[in-house]
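The step that takes the researchers longest sounds almost clerical: writing a folded protein down as plain text. The outcome of that step, for a single protein, is printed below.
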Amino acid sequence: MTIVLNIPLFADTKDPLGFGLHLLSTKIEMIKSIKLKLWLTFFVSLVFSLGSLLVLTHYSVKQRFLDYATDQILERLEPLEVAVAEVFSKNKSLDPFLQNPEKWEDLQNTTYRQYMRHQRFRTSTALGPKQQDWSARQSIEKKLQANQRAFFLDLILVDTKKNLVSGILKDNANYAFRQITLDGELIAYIGYNKPKAFLRSVDKLFVDQQLNVFGMLSVVMVFAALVITMFVARWLVTPLSKLSFNAKKLAQGDFSVRMHSTADDELGTLCQNFDEMARTLEKNEITRKQWVADISHEMRTPLSVLKAQIEAMQDGIRAASQENLNLLKRNVDSISLIVDDLYELSLVDVGALTFHKTETDLSELIREIVGEFDEKMSQKGLQINCDKVPTTANYCYMDKKRIKQLVTNLLENSFRYTDAPGEIHLSLKRDAHQFRITIEDSAPGVPAESLERIFDRLYRLESSRNRETGGAGLGLSICKGIAEGHGGSILAEPSPLGGVKQTIFLPMKTI
């Protein structure tokens, strides 16, 4: 739980409103804390659960034990049942109770007195409860005597058809009946109003003690759960707090921050994703700085030449001849080419590189490109071979200009780096769903660790930054963007000829 106290070291007593606002801000920060929210969630859920359990337990225990206690009291009705059976045995009917209602009342009072004597006997001879329990029982017993007397005086006697014989039948009473038998034959029922409260102090004390114990256990469980909840909330929130702190540092430009989490849960995955994001941003920042440095270097070289030549002409050291003007133009063209590459690369980055796709014969396009390079290759002592390009038409839905730019850049790259005498092979194959354009050249090759990076912008194997030999290192990045813009890809790997094998994958669409 993050608590922000923004209170000055020496409170300004002349500004109570400001001090109050600080306190209000602190309370708001506490309410916003996820740790407090987790704590309150667990607390409310626990209190609600235990409260519901306590209410249900109270009702269930009371009701079940009340039924049990009632069964115990009903055992004291046995003398009353015996007396009714004796009267029925002598008269062969229940008529004496109908003729003399006081007879039933006398039996009720007798049964009640016998019950009270039994209760006093148990209270005076039982061992076990403490003295204060006896005092409590005696106090409760006095309160329950009215209920006990009402229970016995509310007893009714009914015949086998449950027609009233003696007693007063009360309205809305929940009567239950006990059979009275004589020689195995049903002769009558004793009806009793099921009590809704305890009639014996020992029963009430027992249930109250059980509920008190359960209540105390519930309180202990609440406090124990709260302590556990505090640790759980802290365990959950600690990585989040650290994540928030590191995110702020990341936003301030410190890309070296890491969570270093080894947990395999969702929070651990989040922390690992954060570390991966930080590493990516750190790598991008290094690349950005290198990008700025490389572009500056690429632009500085031709600009320096331009500046030196112009100053020499201004000082009269060099004449404004056609040869010197051509030198200036070549350097301007060099700068213009870098700017054009940067512009196209920016379009690739924002996904704005435009394509005008049409059905184009890929075989014819490759042979056209090879024809443009044939003389250039021969002058350097390189042999270009396109025997594996089919003479039959192979139509592909593509931007002819962009695909020509892509293949031309790759061939230019092979031309620039392949040693003479050497050879360059082109091939075109059609699979079930795509075309494969392959360009292979002879030595020198490229180290395996560099093959994965040659399509990165500004990456070059040579240490020289001279554009005349190595270029700005943007062409292959543009090639990758063109291939991906057509829904394809480009791959570099070692060539059997000793150099590099570059494969362009383009989705196929035949007529």
Q: What stands out?
A: The longest helix spans residues 201-251.
